[in-house]
Design brief:
Blueprint (H helix, E strand, L loop, with lengths): L1 E5 L9 E4 L10 H11 L7 E4 L6 H8 L4 E5 L3 H10 L6 E5 L3 H7 L5 E6 L7 H11 L2 E11 L10 E8 L2 E9 L1
Parallel strand pairs: 3-4, 3-6, 4-5, 6-7
Antiparallel strand pairs: 1-2, 7-9, 8-9
């Protein structure tokens, strides 16, 4: 474990976060995180977010730092979840950590309760399947955002959405904005 990750901007700016360097987690690089949150601009203010493959919580914590009012963190690995809980100990906003698989979390979250989902699963996961499961779970509010980080360009047929795509080195980011 080390303290080499940090909150980039907002209320908790410069806070150091514990990270775990192994095959379980893959930290979002600061450059990618900065670009992702610049693309979201002021859309975080007062929102409820779901950090679906939270890892050590960097994306969800950054969202809270920039004005989100509540964060649900999903991390199925016990060791990583313990680090996540340590990282959110200083957070004043409401947080919930669910140490369960993403499928269980999707089935337990209330209908139409989530504004923004951060989706940064291990690269071996099928991102298309996960997005379809999210949409089928009916957890998203009428106007929603799904922010995706992956190793491949997102090519997915979705109706009634706007998708902006960005590439940073080997990392692809897609911001999906939908209206139900």
């Amino acid at each position: 474990m080390s303290l080499d990750a940090r909150v980039i901007a907002g209320k908790y700016r410069h806070r150091k976060l514990l990270t775990l360097h192994n095959e379980i987690t893959r930290a979002t690089k600061d450059r990618v995180k900065e670009a992702l949150f610049s693309a979201l601009n002021q859309e975080l203010e007062g929102k409820v977010i779901l950090d679906l493959f939270a890892g050590t919580g960097a994306l969800g914590i950054e969202a809270l730092s920039r004005g989100a009012k509540r964060a649900i963190f999903c991390e199925n690995n016990e060791e990583v979840s313990a680090i996540l809980k340590h990282n959110i100990a200083f957070i004043e906003e409401e947080t919930v950590v669910l140490t369960k698989s993403y499928e269980h979390v999707l089935s337990e979250i209330g209908e139409r309760s989530i504004d923004i989902i951060f989706l940064d699963p291990p690269y071996a996961y099928n991102i298309h399947t996960i997005i379809q499961e999210i949409l089928a779970a009916n957890i998203l509010k009428d106007a929603y955002i799904i922010a995706v980080e992956t190793d491949k360009e997102l090519v997915i047929p979705l109706n009634d959405v706007k998708i902006k795509k960005y590439k940073y080195g080997l990392t692809h980011v897609a911001i999906i904005r939908g209206i139900k």
